[in-house]
Amino acid sequence: MRPSLVIVGAGPRGTGLLERIAANAAELYGDRELDIHLVDPHPPGGGRIWRHDQSPLLWMNSTAEDVTMFTDDSVEMAGPVRPGPTLAAWAQQVRDGAVDVPPGLAAEAGALGPRDFAGRRLQSGYLEWVYARTVAELPPGVAVHEHRQSAVRVAGPRDGRQQVWLAGRPTPLVADLVVLTLGHLAAEPPPEQRALTSFAAEHGLTYLPPDFTADSDLSGLRAGEPVLVRGMGLAFVDLMILLTEGRGGRYLTRPDGELAYLPSGEEPVLHVGSRRGVPYHSKIGYGWTGERPPLPRFFGPAEVDALLARPGGADFTRDVWPLIAKELGFAHYHRLFTAHPERTAVHWTDFEEKYAATDPGSAALQALVAASVPDPADRLDLEALDHPLDGVRFPDEAALQAGLRGYIQADLDRRHDPAYSPDQAVFLALLSVYGQLTRIGDRGPWWHGFFSYLASGPPGPRLRQLLALSRAGVVKFLGADVSVTADAESGRFRASSASLPGAEVTARALVEARLPEPSVAHSRDALLRGLYTDGAAATPDGLLRVDAADGRVLDRSGRAHPRRFALGPHTDARASGAFTRPGTNAPSFRQNDATARTLLAFLAARATKDSHAADQ
After folding, report:
1. Which residues form the FAD-dependent urate hydroxylase HpyO/Asp monooxygenase CreE-like FAD/NAD(P)-binding domain (predicted)?
2. pTM score, two decimals?
3. pLDDT digits (tens, 9 = 90+) for 86-111
């Protein structure tokens, strides 16, 4: 029987793994035969999240020049670099006639500049092209078989071939190795969400639990009615777009340059809040110039080695976060002192020496910064960044709306002003930190939320639209520390916040604007849940535990399964994204390469063993 590999999940992560298999096959597998089965009910390349079949109004969250599926010389890996175009360069190839795409995508590619934010349907076209190119680059003996079905179960002994059962298929796929590249998955709701769902059903209300917004049924959100929204991240931005432009509203620019929104009359009124009470920070709207901070500096391989060697493991708050905070601060001040020295009071070399010797978060560090950086606006305060509205109380509703608009406008101004380029240095440090953390494993949802809040916010134009919607009364801000209750007496949802004490908003609709928390035990994916039932280990937060070196699934005794692997956001080695910006030593690319090389080495050894057995 031919050697066989099953990859469950054919979206960007599965495509990226396949690209690394193609890149490493000549060295590790030669001209041997191999069957690769790709299992996904959605088209390969884009998968579910990046499929073509979604609203053309939805955008990418990164500029076109910052999106790539291809490795470069920055990636620390054993396999070869296989260069390829960024999304921006690929769009240029479309314009040049070197790549054929449907007419609608060709028009979008024709208008796309390197610093523009592409629509998700154009990204789908890019990912489909990457997939097709990757398949074409596989050795002649490797055959790819696509299965547009869902995998529901994996079975088989640790030391034998695995069986992957597909929905609606009477016999399983037989595989030497199985890799799960599942992406974001639906989950069974926790008790609070179940209670809200029951309350909504009992009182004829609309409750939308966490989900990928493009898949949510928004028809129950009625025109003109209040809708409570918990969450101000990227899922909220999608919701905002689909309920405004998606219902016929439009924007125009006034003579003074201010953006205005013209309602269609079909929009609900979105009352939105969250723990922080503010949207994610805008994407930075200028390019990098000058010297980059030398990263990693205080949180690199040596520090991670020391953390991993700690008896009993490292505690994130006590051991890891101080190193991260010091790394972020180093990047911030390196940029401030080297690019804006007129705003500092000492020489960089003097500051750096003292900074390196001072404990993060200490009074000594605060005194050093205060003496060296005169303007408080030039100092990095991570606690204030994470809690922007702590202690802020507004006297009335109008003041709350004006205050939040002022906050968002100030963020937009800062993020598009190179005078505040230390913000961009912190962004680079966040990427560096994320790359190191993959070796340690998942450290809880707070870090991922903080990273996304600072580094993965919406494009600036989206926040300008949010301001226009607020001025038009289509969006109303609730503030920070939002609390939502199910009020049995009125039969409605009721929301309040710490930012406007005593005020409440009632509504017949409530939307949880975020993705479900990844959880192996509570996943709606039968295959993943079955792995957990069969003994796969999970973190306290519900993520599948894997070997950080190559993604092999761990059991509850810590043993790595020799034939089962997992990559992606459902694991404790989750990276920041299946595709990323060039030149950043992306952890997902490093993981893909390491896993691909492990797979190919195993399969080559198995093929050699079978060949020897056949000769005897």
Report:
1. 6-184
2. 0.94
3. 999 999 999 999 999 988 899 999 99
